[in-house]
Amino acid sequence: MEPTANILTSTPPTEAHIQAFFDKTTFTVSYVVFDRDGGHAAIIDSVLNYDHKSGRTSTTSADQILDFLYAHQLTLDWILETHAHADHLSAAHYLQEKIGGKIAIGAHIHQVQKVFKALFNLEPGFAVDGSQFDYLFAEDEEFQIGDLTARALFVPGHTPADMAYQIGDTVFVGDTLFMPDVGTARCDFPGGDARMLYQSVKKILALPEQTRLFMCHDYPPDEREVQWMCTVADQRHHNIHVRDGVSEGAFIAMRTKRDAGLDMPVLILPSVQVNIRAGALPPKEDNGVRYLKIPLNGI
């Protein structure tokens, strides 16, 4: 299915401009954040389209982002990942080849790489130190997107390596939170921890109530359209899992019970293999073909 786009332009112009792209197949929202036309930009959580029935990749979603960058004459500084996603393949490597930019993720990615190198029995030369990425963010590290100052927030729980990115009054929360009527991310992947997720959510919700939160996914109930932005106040008052008044113990009990009944994401096995490589596909084998592995009874 074709991705759709929506533009949200902040005022005054000294604040971040945000372009959102929604991929209907994986329910993923990717973002371009930029300081001004002709200025500098970052991409957050890009999508490489993948047909799991045929094993074919395509670049429809990523090319839409590229078209936007070219149309607005933007220099790409960063290709940011909030974590190693289990529901879609990252287009980071493809985008970097086309337009440049540094691929970055949180410094704790090595914990995820270690687990999945063992699960997939990856090649001996696959490093588990995050070196596939151009830059690894430390907790609360600041960085620039042209004239914009951004900060990397460490928000583990969904995975041990999740990051959120704060730019002014805006935070891109990754999979830590969903829209209030959907709730919070699962915590049953390797290294996930419901207590840590609760603490990470509370860290985000301690920001001023008018802070805008941009989701990485939306799985809307039947009665509403897709949405991907709300405020801290919206989450504190209405999140079905973690609104004000929900204790840590109650959240952990709910999250643990709920996770036990969830199916694995459709694309978890292909996605993780690519995403721990910063969006690069596995190396070609001696017949010139790249392969993704499916470990039987492994998860």
Write the layout of secondary structure elements.
Blueprint: E1 4-9, E2 17-23, E3 28-34, E4 40-44, E5 49-51, E6 56-58, H1 60-71, E7 75-80, H2 92-99, E8 102-106, H3 109-120, E9 135-137, E10 142-145, E11 148-154, E12 163-167, E13 170-172, H4 194-205, E14 212-214, E15 229-231, H5 232-238, H6 248-260, H7 268-275
Parallel strand pairs: 4-7, 7-8, 8-9, 13-14
Antiparallel strand pairs: 1-2, 2-3, 3-4, 5-6, 10-11, 11-12, 12-13, 14-15
Helix pairs in contact: 4-6
Query: Structural class, from helix and strand content?
Result: alpha/beta
Helix content: 10-25%
Largest sheet: 7 strands, mixed
Number of DSSP helices?
7
> Which regions contain 5 or more consecutive residues with pLDDT less than 50?
7-13
